[in-house]
Amino acid sequence: MVHVLEFDTEKDGVRSLTEEISDIVAKSGVQEGLCVIHTPHTTAGITITSKWDETDFADIKSEFRRLVPTRVDFYHQFDTPEDAAGHIKSVLAGCNMTLILHEGRLMLGSSQGIFFLEFDGPRRRQCYVSIVAEH
Questions:
Q1: Could you tell me where the DSSP H helices lie in 18-99?
Q2: CA–CA separation, 26 vs 22, rounded Å?
Q3: For residue 45, what are the β-bridge partners?
Q4: Domain spans of the chain?
Q5: Sign (positive or negative) of CA dihedral 27, 115, 9, 77
Q6: Phi, psi (deg, nearest 5) at residue 25
Q7: Prior bond to 122 cis, omega within 30?
Q8: 108-130 confidence digits (pLDDT tens)
Q9: Per-residue model confidence (pLDDT) at position 133
Q10: Helix/strand/coil for 82
């Protein structure tokens, strides 16, 4: 079964998915297996970082802007130069991840969380979550 998380984002926002995905895992009843998370958007990403430090998000956003500044000379000019930069940032961050489930829980470190990164926005976004039981 695929679970769909739907939410609205802010421009260049960061949204925690940790609690919602942990709830999906708990309700699945799966003790050992995998949790696959995917977003179908080309100007967004999914990552793991510290769930306690807001300055982490500021640093991450700042570094993405430094590495991929909005420019008018991108070949891809489908919407705006900002949209083209968002596509590149999405490639760098990645749009999916797979986590191990052990004893009914996500195998995350004590300070780690799962986050959705918006490289455009504001937009209505989705993430798909699938729990795969070990056989």
A1: 18-28, 54-67, 81-93
A2: 6
A3: 117
A4: 2-133
A5: negative
A6: -60, -50
A7: yes
A8: 999 999 999 999 989 999 999 99
A9: 97
A10: helix
Report the pLDDT value the prediction gives residue 17, as an integer from 0 to 100. 97
Q: What pLDDT is stored for residue 135 in this prediction?
A: 83
- Name 15's bridge partners: 116
Q: For the CA atoms of 125, 111, 35, 43, what is the dihedral angle to 10 degrees?
A: 30
The mean pLDDT of 13-29, rounded to a whole number, is 97
User: At residue 14, does pLDDT exceed 70?
Assistant: yes
What gap in Å lies between CA 133 and CA 92, rounded to an integer? Answer: 29
Rounded Cα distance between 41 and 37, Å, is: 13
Which residues are registered as beta bridge partners of 47?
A: 115
Whole-angstrom distance, CA of residue 10 vs CA of residue 121: 6
**CATH number belonging to the domain at 2-133, selected among 1.10.3210.10, 1.10.340.30, 1.10.760.10, 2.60.120.460:** 2.60.120.460
What does the alpha-carbon distance between residue 96 and residue 131 come to, in Å, rounded to a whole number?
14
Instruction: Return the pLDDT at 78.
Output: 65
